UniProtKB/TrEMBL annotation:
Species whose genome carries this gene: Cephalotus follicularis
Subcellular location: Nucleus
Cofactor(s) annotated in UniProt: a divalent metal cation
Listed InterPro entries: DUF8040, HARBI1-like, HARBI1_dom
Stretches assigned to coiled coil: none
Main subcellular localisation: nucleus
Protein name as annotated: DDE_4 domain-containing protein
Domain of life where this protein originates: Eukaryota
């Protein structure tokens, strides 16, 4: 599962004792987490997990969803910014000469975002290998749809293979191969 045994056991223990993962009448929490890790860590399908763990597709899907809910609860408690209100500017930004931006009063208006403050739109793409693409510099008044279409038009982002989808921001338009959360 791409994890050491002691780490897996600690994960199971924490999900069970702190986040409410409960065994079902046919499966203990270790097997439930194993199914989840198999699918997530190996990029496997439910069908593959069915074969490996000898459970029905309904059971594998249900167990995956239950463990995912608990992992999300765990993530909510563990993944937090050091400065939740972002009051301190990181030294890497302060010392970077490219970060400083001054605009004349005539140039300010296009950078005013929906909340009435100066902003800049940034498109960031990250895959499962943590490879990233970042496209900064868009004026704060630019809509997500405009940036998305410009990136597609200029072939700056990859198109998903047939039958696959990229998860995108809810501000992006519906388009084949790209799926956004429903508001």
């Amino acid at each position: 599962f791409r994890m050491h045994n002691d780490v897996v056991l600690r994960l199971v223990h924490d999900l069970e004792s702190l986040y409410g993962l409960q065994s079902s009448h046919n499966m203990n929490p270790l097997e439930m987490v194993a199914i989840f890790l198999h699918i997530v860590g190996q990029g496997c399908s439910v069908r593959n997990a069915m074969e490996r763990f000898q459970h029905s597709s309904e059971t594998v899907s249900r167990i995956f969803g239950e463990v995912l809910e608990n992992v999300c609860r765990m993530g909510f408690h563990l993944i937090k910014p050091i400065d939740p209100e972002f009051k301190v500017v990181p030294p890497q930004i302060l010392s970077n000469s490219r970060s400083c931006l001054t605009l004349s009063p005539l140039e300010v208006v296009p950078y005013i975002g929906q909340k009435g403050i100066l902003t800049q739109n940034v498109m960031a793409v990250c895959d499962f290998d943590m490879s990233t693409f970042c496209w900064a510099g868009w004026k704060g008044s630019a809509h997500d749809t405009r940036i998305f279409y410009a990136a597609l038009l200029n072939s700056l982002i990859f198109h998903p293979p047939d039958g696959k989808y990229y998860l995108v921001d809810s501000g992006y338009p519906p388009r084949k191969g790209y799926i956004s959360p429903y508001k």
